[in-house]
Each structure stands twice: as structure tokens, then as C-alpha cells.
Amino acid sequence: MTFQPATAGDHTPFLDFLSPWMTRQRWFANKGAIPVLEHIGSVSFESAEPDVSAITHLVIDHTVGKPALYQVPLTYRREPLPHQAALVGEFGGQWVYDAPYDPAYTGALLDAIIHGTESQGDHVWAIGKRTASHVAAGLQSRVLTGEQSNTSIIFEHEGETPVICKVFRALHDGENPDVVLQTVLAQAGSTAVPPPVGHILAEWDDRGEVTGRATGHLAFAQEFLPGVQDAWRVALAAAAAGTDFSDEARTLGIATAGVHATLAANMPTSDVTRDDIDSVIGSMHRRLADAITEVPELARFEPAIRDVFERASLAQWPAQQRIHGDYHLGQVLAVPDRGWVLVDFEGEPLRPMKERSRLDSPIRDIAGMLRSFDYVAGSLAVGGAESSPEWAESARAAFEDGYGEASGRDIRHSRALVDAFEIDKALYETVYEARNRPGWLSIPVDAIERLCARVSG
Questions:
Q1: CA 360 – CA 342 distance, rounded (Å)
Q2: Beta-ladder partners of 217
Q3: Which residue among 197, 223, 249 closes a domain?
Q4: Most CB contacts within 10 A, which of 13, 62, 202, 281?
Q5: How many domains does the chain have?
Q6: Per residue in 202-238, pLDDT tens?
């Protein structure tokens, strides 16, 4: 029998208690700002420990811009844990902890997924959905370090297949594509994603929705692949050593085409209309204008870039479908005896969830990976190491060859379209680097100059 933490009624004291801690968390977006918090609701997960409550709070920050909704799972204990790392503080005579670090919560969370537990809370409803046929009992949990926008919990025990459960911190109305796409791929027999275990689906009050309610995913569990490197580190090591990466890039192109084909076969697709093309090209022009405002140096490329966009608007476009959406080498794992495995299908984190779930062009994923190869060589150059542009060009060409071989679509026949999507991605990178890593600004700017020169040449 769990006890009730002192958060009912007026939530102001609780939010005042929570606010300073939230500003120190990696997943909190408005760094340096004093949060203006609103408590939307909460839902409990049944803890196996009788004197512990495991409660997920949904809290909106109204500080700046569009309100941001956060998932804040906490545990409430009458007696403190022996370690203090996850302590939020004392509130209402209880010890409050960041729940992913507390086994009382992690055990309850995995149990809810495995057993399909339904919970009705304060303005929040949640239910677990299991997709794996078997999950071992007695798994011990730990939090994976280095997370940014989410918190990942590792469940493991010697001799058992480990599980990783991603707790989504920033919530949005709409199903999370990370859950939906990987589940569809795995159920279709694809080995290019880690097999899913299950997820937590929730509904909560939302004044911005016509129905007054929003729906989204709180957590997603799947097989964990320990001790593997992502493709970014593998490629970076190869480039630093001057080792050709063509074979690896080619097989990555094959894997990418396979994922696109499986998604197209098992999820909706649509032929591209003139309105669809105009909408995408229009967004490219807007991104160009915004990038020039941010980085005036780009103005010298404006005529050539607009010419690339115009040529792309007249090209033949493939059908729209579900795609990865934020595809780069860091989203791919090199798994021994399995090959390339794709992860993190959430899409661009700054886009609303419903936009991330729209049909899009597979060319966007191709362009994202091409930019990633370029970043490998560019990052070495800005770091003062020897870097060969030929390394990146070889990898890019091999990736395109592999994709064409597996898909039957020769990317070289869609050059204008690929160039437009790649420039669009480079414009996004330019703004990001100008704001966050000025020393890396030359990487996307040089790419834009190179792509414009190829078209004009």
C-alpha cells in the first residue's frame, strides 16, 4: 500500500520546490531562465516497495515562447536512500528523488510495460503496451549517462538480453515516431532496428486541443546493444587514419534503402503533388532567408541557391512516405554480426510531434547522411588534424551507390533534388553553428559553396 505524497490541492508550493531543480537538468530547454510552471496532472505507477510512491508529473513551463510540456517522474520516500545523487529535496516531510535513478520507479515502469498496466491519475491516463514475447525478470537498472533531451534507463542482468527504456522528457501531442516506426519495422521482420519491448501511452488535459485532451508516449523500451560504437565514431576513426570507408558507406546505403522500403510497404505513402513540392520548396526558401539574416556571409550564394531550389522544383520526386527524419551517422550503430542498426527515429527535435509524423521525401534522409560524411572530414579539419576531402567524397559516392543498388533508384539521376535537400540541411547547420559552435561554421558554409559551384559549373 503506497502513501500519498503532499502535492494535492494548491500546487504552488510543490512547483516552487521543483523549479530550481528543473533548471539544472540537461533536458530543461530554457537554461538560465526562471521557470513559470503549471502542474497539468499526474499518474502513479505501482511500486513494489510499500513505503514508496512513484509518480509521473506533467508540468508546463510558460517562461518564453511556446509553452513546453515536461514529464517529471519522481519518487517519494519516508526514509532517504543511501545515495544522494538523484535527490531533488525534501518536500512535505518526504524525500523526493529523480525517479529514473530509483529502482522503485524503474521496476514499476518496466512492469507496467510488460503487464499492460492501465493507470488513471489526476487528469492523466496511462497504459502499458508490450510488443516483445518475453522479457526476463530480475533485471537491475541504471541510468545511461550523457543523455540530453531524454533519460534512458538500462535494465540488465548477467546472461539476459539487456533492455533500454527511453523516458521522454519533453512531451507533445501525437504519437512519437521513435516508438511507431521502430515497432513497425521490427514487426515487419527488419533487423535494422533493435527489437522493441513495449511502451507507455498516455492521455492528458490540453487546453490547446479541440477535444481538450492530448495523446502521446511517455516511454519506449527496446533491446539494448551494449559495447557498440555509433557510425560517427567508426567513420571518424577511419577518416583520422586515412582509411577508406567506401565498403562501410555502401552497406549503410543498402541498409538505409531497406528501411525506407520496409516503411513504404507497411505504412501509408502518397504520390507527390504540385502543392506538396511547392510547400517543401517554399520552406527551403524561408530557411535560406532566415539563414542569411543570421549569417550575412551566405548572401553571396543566394542566387545560386535559389537556382538549385528552382531546378529541384522541376525534378521528378519520389513518393512521400515515413522516414527517419533526423538521419546522420550518430543515429546508426555498428553491431558485430548484425551490421548497421538504426536508432532514434524521433525526427528533428524542434519540430512539433505531428509534423514529425507527416509523410516526407526519402531524399531528406539521404541528404542528411551525405552531410554527416562531410562533417566527419570537416570536424577533423577544424580540430587541426589532417583531413582529406577525397575521403568524404568517396564515402558519399559509395553510400549513394549502395542506396541505388538496393532501391533501384539511382541517386545520380536525382542530383538536383538531392542537392536542394543537402543545401537546405547545410543552411540549418549554418545557423546552428553560428549560434553554438562558431569554430565549426566553415563546415556547412564550405559545403554550400561547393554545391553551388557544382551546379553553376
A1: 18
A2: 201
A3: 223
A4: 202
A5: 2
A6: 999 999 888 999 999 999 999 999 999 999 999 999 9
